[in-house]
Design goal:
Distance between the termini: 11 Å
Largest sheet: none
Helix content: over 70%
Number of strands: 0
Number of helices: 2
Length: about 55
């Protein structure tokens, strides 16, 4: 059972990292000047979402 928890945590971290990379890529390839707000919002939305995901473990 301990290995299952570690696997789920690794999946949560990988998903968070993947979403972060997607947002950063979208910001730097966007022609909109307001896209940089996405970089500021990553911690405000990402960390609580990761916390909710870890609580479910």
């Amino acid at each position: 059972m301990h290995n299952r928890t570690a696997f789920l945590k690794a999946g949560a971290y990988a998903g968070f990292a993947g979403a972060t990379m997607f947002i950063v890529q979208a910001v730097f390839t966007s022609a909109s000047s307001t896209a940089a707000i996405g970089l500021i919002m990553i911690p405000f939305y990402g960390f609580p979402a990761a916390g909710v995901g870890c609580v479910g473990l």
